[in-house]
Amino acid sequence: MIIVTETTAEPRSPARVVRPVLPVAAADLADGMAFGALAASVGMGVLAPVAMSLLVFSGSAQYGAVAVIGQHGSIWAVVGAAAALNARYLLMGTTIAPALTGSAWSRAGTALLITDGSWAIAHRGDGRYDLRTLRVAGALCLCGWTAGTALGAILGDAIGDPGRLGLDAAYPVFFLGLLRSHLKDARAWFLAVLGVAAAAALVAWAPPGVPVLVAGAAGAVAGAALGVRR
């Protein structure tokens, strides 16, 4: 059973709430700069990536979108890739929804602050989550991510070719990092290898973005089937 609380058993001071968030916000600042530079290098300019970071606020979806745009993929491939990469937020949102009160706008605002980082920091163990910490972490990470995107996009020309600094490898490394945290048993490894095989079979001839969608779908269907059997 998941229990989400506004406060923990022991009230936390503002300093205790902010302190563990700062490293994550700093990492989002650096990662946002890499994203901004990459977005500028594929022709998105400055305003578009900044608006995207402010409104979408999802590193995985935004990196995926830039990857597809860089390969001249269609708008449907961009939207499909972003939606597939963000599907996990449906489950995260359902666990926190019972604790949210207030207007629809208030609940939507809190939902927009849910990220992998803020979700992890707000976890108090035993299925409990602190909404105050979640909101503070999400807000600081949003500021860091958006400011980093702006800096990266503005300084993109000064930085030069992102490939020269290895920034073109940012989103593959980012995705590998996300994947590695889930490879905890044979089932997870099987699904990962299946996804890689599905993408590799299509990448040479399918439109950009399609291999990612097919790989994700193959992993989801196989995972559901294995789950039913278990």
From TrEMBL:
Keyword presence, Nucleotide-binding: no
Ranges annotated as spanning the membrane: 33-56, 63-84, 134-156, 162-179, 186-206, 212-228
Subcellular location: Cell membrane
An annotated GO cellular component: plasma membrane
InterPro entries in alphabetical order: Brnchd-chn_aa_trnsp_permease
Biological processes, Gene Ontology terms: L-valine transmembrane transport
Membrane disposition: Multi-pass membrane protein
Keyword terms, alphabetized: Cell membrane, Membrane, Transmembrane, Transmembrane helix, Transport
Top-level taxon of origin: Bacteria
Family: Belongs to the AzlC family.
Protein name: AzlC family protein
The species this protein was found in: Amycolatopsis rifamycinica
Organismal lineage: Bacteria, Bacillati, Actinomycetota, Actinomycetes, Pseudonocardiales
